[in-house]
């Protein structure tokens, strides 16, 4: 699953640690999500969406769904 | 440090304390009858105490796991799953080697515990690096 977490974080000038603290996860988790190595759960994705004031689809992109279109 | 991190740290320290007490109670139950007392009643009390402390350690471990975030829980789950599977398969294979007299020594439980500890540690390091 692709995501725009790194871009959104950079736009707000936040560090990975700051985002991790805001989402109550470890910095390693933010790093793994940004690199596409780990897909967050739905609750965590909603939390991130709320934090950035966006919808989940604005942040995360389902690559499998895109390929099927 | 955030409240979430403080909570995880507190529960990790608590797990460490429970593990230390369990190790001490295991040593007491193992070496007590050999070096300190010759009473069967005291041996039973030491084993009951060891199991009770072990239950406390299991609950502390459960609480600590619940305090981790979802990636950390996934890493733990994968490492524990591999350890359990490998422990079962290799443990039984080791036991068969013993019963069929292929190895010149008994397949004791401590060997299994050491092997599982090494598998758990190795898989934990590999899984942690996989997500970096």
* Widest beta sheet: strand line-up of chain A: 1-2
Beta content of chain B:
under 5%
Structural class of chain A: mainly alpha
Instruction: Provide the CATH top-level class of chain A.
Output: Mainly Alpha
The CATH fourth-level homologous superfamily of chain A: lambda repressor-like DNA-binding domains
Our count of helices of chain A gives 6
Overall outline of chain A: globular
Poorly predicted parts of chain A? none
The amount of helix of chain A comes to 55-70%
Mean pLDDT of chain B: 95
Unreliable stretches of chain B (pLDDT < 50, length at least 5) are none
Question: What would you note in describing this structure?
Answer:
The complex is a heterodimer of chains A (69) and B (132). Chain A has 69 residues and is mostly helical. Chain A has a single domain (2-68), classed as lambda repressor-like DNA-binding domains (434 Repressor (Amino-terminal Domain), Orthogonal Bundle), CATH 1.10.260.40. Chain A contains 6 helices and 2 strands; from the N terminus they run E-H-H-H-H-H-E-H. Chain A has a two-stranded antiparallel sheet. In chain A, helix 2 crosses helix 3. Chain A is globular, with a radius of gyration of 12 Å. The relative contact order of chain A is 0.20. The mean pLDDT of chain A is 91. Chain B is mostly helical and 132 residues long. Chain B folds into 2 domains: 1-67; 69-132. In chain B, 86% of the residues lie in helices and 0% in strands. Chain B has helices at residues 3-36, 40-67, 70-99, 109-130. In chain B, helix 1 runs antiparallel to helix 2 (40-67) and helix 3 (70-99) runs antiparallel to helix 4. The interface between A and B is medium-sized, with 13 and 12 residues.
């Amino acid at each position: 699953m692709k995501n725009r977490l790194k871009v959104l974080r950079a736009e707000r000038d936040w560090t990975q640690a700051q985002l991790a603290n805001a989402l109550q996860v470890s910095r390693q988790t933010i790093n793994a999500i940004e690199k596409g190595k780990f897909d967050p759960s739905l609750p965590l994705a909603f939390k991130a969406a709320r934090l950035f004031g966006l919808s989940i689809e604005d942040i995360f992109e389902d690559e499998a769904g895109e390929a099927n279109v | 440090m955030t409240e979430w991190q403080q909570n995880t740290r507190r529960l990790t320290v608590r797990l460490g304390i429970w593990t230390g007490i369990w190790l001490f109670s295991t040593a007491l139950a193992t070496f007590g009858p050999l070096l300190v007392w010759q009473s069967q009643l005291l041996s039973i009390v030491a084993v009951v105490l060891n199991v009770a402390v072990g239950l406390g350690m299991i609950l502390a471990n459960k609480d600590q796991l619940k305090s981790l975030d979802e990636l950390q829980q996934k890493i733990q789950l994968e490492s524990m799953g591999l350890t359990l599977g490998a422990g079962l398969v290799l443990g039984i294979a080791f036991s068969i080697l013993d019963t069929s007299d292929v190895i010149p020594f008994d397949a004791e439980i401590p060997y299994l515990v050491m092997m599982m500890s090494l598998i758990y540690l190795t898989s934990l390091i590999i899984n942690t690096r996989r997500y970096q």
